[in-house]
Each structure stands twice: as C-alpha cells, then as structure tokens.
Specification:
Helix content is about 40%, strand content about 25%. The protein has six helices and six strands.
Length: about 130
C-alpha cells in the first residue's frame, strides 16, 4: 500500500502573509498549483487554496489588490505524517472537507499532498487503463 511519502510533492511553495490575493492567484497560475502555504516571520502559518480565494475573497466582493493572504487563509494547516498510507490522507481530506494536506516529518512540514496527487497515486496501482475513443 502506497504511503504519503510516495505521492507527496516535496517542494514547498509559499507566499508572504502580506501578499495580495491578486498576487497569490498569479503565483498559483504561474506555478500551476491549487494552493500555497502562507509564511509569516519564517514560519508557515496557514494555507491559501483556490477555494479560499473564491469563497472568502471573490464571492464577498473583496478588493483582490488589497486583501492579503493572511485575511483569507485556512488555519491551522491540516497535516499528515509521511509514513501514513495514502488511504489515510484520503480519509482525512474527506473528514476535514479539504483538498490539500501539509505533509510532515517529525512535526515539521516537508511538503504537500493534494487530491490530484492521490488520484495519480491510485492510477499507478490500478489495473486497467481506460482510454478515450
């Protein structure tokens, strides 16, 4: 059974807590990711996701050039240890209603795992590949 370490991404993509939502969205687009960790005083204090941007900024009519990541981020960061099974990550995401988990080793965030990562992981272990006609 695959572990979180087998499916996670180790690159920690982040923005400063003072970054505007407009800059956060541009970085997400450029990095081709759906979330970014939020950093304050060299510490990861939250995570901003596409869902956070839609629900807490766009839908409320917030000024995307003024509202900061710190104002809309999700906190605390939901985390899972690297040695846990991908099934545990899937269950945790379902229970918490999130699509991203910070991945930790001995309590320190070392990466991230997303629903997309879990799908790719599942695809590797599943038998038949479905093709499009």
């Amino acid at each position: 059974m695959p572990t979180v370490a087998d499916s996670m991404r180790r690159e920690i993509k982040k923005v400063p807590h003072t970054a505007t939502i407009k800059k956060v969205a541009a970085k997400m687009k450029g990095d081709k990711v759906g979330s970014l960790f939020v950093e304050k005083k060299k510490e990861l204090v939250g995570i901003v996701t596409e869902t956070d941007i839609i629900r807490r900024a766009v839908a409320t009519g917030a000024n995307l050039g003024k509202v900061t990541a710190e104002k809309i981020m999700s906190k605390p960061i939901a985390t899972i240890e690297t040695y846990r099974l991908t099934r545990d990550a899937q269950d945790m995401m379902g229970d918490l209603g999130v699509r991203h988990l910070g991945v930790t080793e001995h309590g320190k965030i070392v990466g991230i795992i997303s629903v997309r990562d879990l799908l790719v992981s599942q695809q590797r272990v599943s038998e038949p590949k479905i093709t499009q006609d």
